[in-house]
Amino acid sequence: MSDAPRPAATPDFLNHDRPPVPQIVVPRGVQPFHLRDRPVRGRLVRLGPLAEALLGRHDNHPAVTRLAGEALALTAGLAAALKFRGSFSLQAKGDGVVPMLLADCTESGELRGYARAEPDKLARLLRGDPDPSAAALLGKGYLAFTCDQGPDMDRYQGIVAIEGISLAQMAGSYFRTSEQIRTLVRLACARTEAGWRAAAFIMEKVATEGGIALGTDDRDADLPAADPEDPDEAWHTACVLADTLTDAELLDDSLPADRLLHRLFHAEGLSVDRARALSYGCRCSRARLAGVLEGFPPEDLDHMVQDDGAITVTCEFCNVGFRFERREVRGKRAAG
């Protein structure tokens, strides 16, 4: 079963005011699974060439790019476990070299994200540590997970302090303290011969009483209950097996997700569920950014004008600049 990408079906003429960003779909980007008669379920996320398409547009240091790739894979894996319409996002804000890390994924798997680094701080950090951890890059701050289903729906948000060395440890701390769900998280991101690749392995211990954890996808509702005699032992065994995963396996395009899962759990009642697609999901457009500019007072717009007499707005997700002549944007007039 191939994990190869396919072109998106959106005709170019429908996106005439959008930048020429890659139209990539990875059909089996998220592979959900569960273990029969055991309190274990999870998702294996492989971004494949989508990682290069998303990360390669930014001229970041490899350590910053790796952090952004891990955030994208983690967000895709968490979003796939929820039933929602809208977007699910991960945001980390700290006082470190990377003051802002953001990734979001829609219910249909459209993925985008970016990491904003401060060059001077980064240069100083790299002089003392050429391969800084996520903790060193982010500093002290908070990690927020948000499910936004639009203006007419309640927005769910979980926020915790940044704790841990790696982003995987930070996510595990969130689930342990906020959701009280036993979770194993493995993240990997690296530049390969084929370009940047990113992956996530997320596994959860399912409640043995009262069904699955609240807020999860209804398609998991028929997940069998764990053996009431020793669910903790079943979870421990699954974790021991999952810990044998290597980054090389996670990032290997030639190793299909279902085959990798079979390697791990073939003796544990593995059941592979329907895969989900992931795609390039930047939603910027000239019309949308023009609307943002129209919200500024005219005097603020005047200050945005550059030497060439125009205003340039750059989308932080896809790193494409949109140029507006000052006369094109009137701005928000004062009331009265």
TrEMBL record:
It comes from the Bacteria. GO terms for molecular function: protein folding chaperone; unfolded protein binding. Residues 1-20 are annotated as: Disordered. One of its GO terms (cellular component) is cytoplasm. Pfam families: HSP33. InterPro entries: Heat_shock_Hsp33 (IPR000397), Heat_shock_Hsp33_C (IPR016154), Heat_shock_Hsp33_N (IPR016153), Hsp33_helix_hairpin_bin_dom_sf (IPR023212). GO terms for biological process: protein refolding. Keywords: Chaperone, Cytoplasm, Disulfide bond, Redox-active center, Zinc. This is Hsp33 family molecular chaperone HslO. It comes from Roseomonas acroporae.
